[in-house]
Design a protein that fits this description.
about 425 residues; alpha/beta; nine-stranded mixed sheet; two-stranded antiparallel ribbon; 16 helices; globular; disordered N terminus
C-alpha cells in the first residue's frame, strides 16, 4: 500500500510516497484523542477523510488486540481537526467558490421585492403574517410566477387542497387579463365561482383564457402536495428526494423551489422527543429545513402570536414559534400598511387594543387592502422596513397582489426594469 503524505498527517513534512504504510504506522504517529467527548472536534470534510481512512482502518485490522474502531475514529477526528481549514482551503475552497458563483437567482415576480433582495437563492425563507393579509395568496402567486418562468416548484399545502389553490390562481389570472378585480363588478371571476362553475356569461372567454395559461405555463412545473396534520419534515424531504430522482430519470436535473404552507401544523422530525413542547418541536422542524435548504430555496409561511396582530411585526411576533430568528436566513413580515403609518400603533402611545382592532378592521373592509412587506433579517443583504418598504395592493376577491408603484423607488426600478409581473 502507498500513500502521498500531507504535512498534516505526520512526519515527514515534505510530500513523498511511503510504501508498506500499515507496517510503519503505529499509534505513536498520531496524537491521542480528546478525553472529553463533548470536546471532540467535528468530522473532517469528505475530501480529506479518504486520505487517512486506509491507514487507520488497516492498522485496526492488523492489530485488533491493540486498538478498537471507536479509538481509531477518535484519533481520525483529532488528526484532521488540527489543520482542517488548511485541508479545506487546499481541497474544497475553490470548488465551493465556483459552486456559489454558479447558483441561480430566481425572480419572485414582485419587482419591488426583487429590487431589495435580488431574487431567491438556496436558503431558508420565512414569511410571518396574521390573518387576512393574504400570506397564502402572496406565496402562491410567487410560486406560480416562478413555475411560469421555467423553474420547478413544489408547494406543500397543509390546509387547502389542489382545487382550492388552482381556482385561486385562475381567478388571479382572469383578473390580470380583464382588469376586473373587485366584487362590485358582476363580471369578476372569483375562486368560489370557479369551484362552483358559476362563471358569469360575459366572462367565460376570459375564464377559458386564464385556465389555458394556467395549464400550459404554470401547471407543467408546479406540484401542489396536499398534506395533513401528520405531514412533517421527514415526509417532505422524502418526497423532494423522490421528486428529484424522478426528474433526473426524465432527464431533468431539477432542484425545485419549495413552499410550505404552513409551519405551525407540521409534524416535527422523527428524532424529536415525543414529550417535547411545541417550541422545541418548531425549533427541530426549522433546523431540519435549514439543513436541507443548502441547495434549494425553501419558503415557509408562519403564523404570528395573536398578541401581535395589532402591532408592528418584529421578532417578538414569532416568539411562540421557537427560535425562528436564528434559523431563518431571510425573515419577512406581511402586515397592513396602516400599522406602520398610523400613530395609534406607535409603541410610545397608549392606544387601547380595541381602537387598534377597529382601525385594522376598517382597512380590511377596503379593496384593495394596502399591505406591506418588511424584512427583519437578511443574511444575503440588507433588511428593509419603515421608510424602505415593499408595498402592495391586495385584492382578496380575485386573490391578486399588485406592486404599489407609488412606493416604488427609482433604484428598484433600475434593478428589474420596472416591469409588472407577467401572467
Amino acid at each position: 500500500m502507498s500513500l502521498e503524505w500531507n504535512s498534516w498527517i505526520g512526519e515527514p513534512e515534505e510530500k513523498e510516497v511511503a510504501a508498506e504504510i500499515p507496517e510503519k504506522i503505529t499509534l505513536e504517529n498520531f496524537p491521542p484523542p480528546a478525553q472529553d467527548e463533548a470536546m471532540n472536534p467535528p468530522p473532517a470534510p469528505p475530501e480529506v477523510v479518504p486520505l487517512i481512512d486506509p491507514i487507520l482502518e488497516q492498522y485496526a485490522e492488523d492489530h485488533p488486540e491493540n486498538v478498537s474502531y471507536d479509538y481509531i475514529e477518535k484519533i481520525q477526528r483529532n488528526i484532521i481537526h488540527k489543520s482542517q481549514m488548511k485541508a479545506y482551503m487546499e481541497t474544497a475552497f475553490e470548488g465551493e467558490l465556483n459552486k456559489y458563483a454558479e447558483r441561480q437567482t430566481i425572480s419572485t415576480g414582485y419587482d419591488n421585492l426583487d429590487g431589495y433582495i435580488g431574487g431567491l437563492v438556496p436558503g431558508l425563507y420565512v414569511l410571518g403574517a396574521g390573518s387576512g393579509v393574504g400570506k397564502t395568496t402572496f406565496c402562491l402567486q410567487m410560486a406560480d410566477y416562478i413555475a411560469s418562468s421555467g423553474h420547478e416548484v413544489v408547494y406543500f399545502a397543509m390546509e387547502q387542497n389542489q382545487l382550492e389553490l388552482a381556482s385561486k390562481s385562475i381567478s388571479r389570472l382572469a383578473a390580470q387579463i380583464s382588469h376586473v378585480k373587485t366584487e362590485d363588478n358582476s363580471n369578476i371571476i372569483t375562486s368560489m365561482k370557479v369551484r362552483q362553475r358559476a362563471i358569469p356569461e360575459g366572462s367565460k372567454a376570459i375564464y377559458e383564457q386564464a385556465k389555458k395559461i394556467y395549464m400550459e405555463e404554470i401547471a407543467p412545473r408546479l406540484d401542489i402536495v396536499h398534506g395533513d396534520f401528520r405531514t412533517g419534515t421527514t415526509k417532505i424531504i422524502e418526497f423532494i428526494e423522490e421528486y428529484k430522482r424522478t426528474k433526473q430519470y426524465e432527464g431533468t436535473a431539477a432542484r425545485p423551489v419549495i413552499f410550505i404552507d404552513y409551519l405551525q401544523v407540521l409534524e416535527p422530525p422523527e428524532e424529536t422527543p415525543k414529550n417535547a413542547d411545541r417550541r422545541k418541536q418548531i425549533d427541530d422542524i426549522m433546523f431540519a429545513l435549514k439543513n436541507y435548504s443548502e441547495e434549494v430555496p425553501i419558503f415557509v409561511i408562519s403564523s404570528l402570536n395573536r398578541s401581535n396582530y395589532t402591532a408592528r411585526i418584529d421578532y417578538e411576533a414569532f416568539k411562540e414559534s421557537g427560535n425562528i430568528e436564528y434559523t431563518g436566513e431571510v425573515i419577512f413580515g406581511l402586515q397592513m400598511k396602516c400599522i406602520n403609518e398610523d400613530s395609534a400603533f406607535d409603541s410610545a402611545t397608549e392606544s387601547k387594543a380595541g381602537e387598534k382592532r377597529k382601525k385594522i378592521a376598517a382597512e380590511m373592509e377596503k379593496e384593495p387592502r394596502e399591505v406591506e412587506l418588511v424584512c427583519l433579517k437578511n443574511r444575503y443583504g440588507k433588511r428593509f422596513g419603515n421608510k424602505r418598504r415593499a408595498c402592495f395592493k391586495y385584492y382578496p376577491s380575485c386573490d391578486l397582489f399588485e406592486v404599489d408603484y407609488e412606493h416604488y423607488t427609482p433604484h428598484m426600478k433600475n434593478h428589474t426594469g420596472g416591469g409588472k409581473p407577467k401572467l
